[in-house]
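We examine the record.

___
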Amino acid sequence: MQRGVWPIARRALLLWCAWIVLGRTGPVDLAVGAVVAVVVAIVSDALAPQRDSAVSPGGILRFALRFVARSLIAGADVAGRVLGPRVRVRPGIASVPCAVPAGVPRQFFSSLSSLQPGILPLGGDASSMQVHSLDVEGPVEADIAGDAAAFLAMYRTRAQ
């Protein structure tokens, strides 16, 4: 075991909850789910590389609240632009700086960003992202910077 008993127990509990969410709630199903969750948690702990960061529950909550709020605001904005008497779209591709490191974190961030109305990440390099926006003259750069800061706040290094 690389990280101790409590992280494995927490992971097993989360896996078991996922089992229940999938609709397996009979007595036998719950027992099988508990065994599977424990085995998977132990094996995944043994196979997973040691990380230098951990997830911050407060950071996740702040990101989720920001994400929901921004999705509602962006959805209303897109609807107003498209359904209004005068269509106010200035679509285009913008290159914006992005503080999220390239690789898996950036891919995860891009996936989450693509769920918000009006912005579609297209790729990028080590320090920037290419995004398609319905309004390239709008605050695309500020929106991505704020989302990236909230995304990065979900993680904390072991030193913190």
Summary: Residues 54-157 form one domain. The chain has two domains: 5-50, 54-157. The longest helix spans residues 57-83.
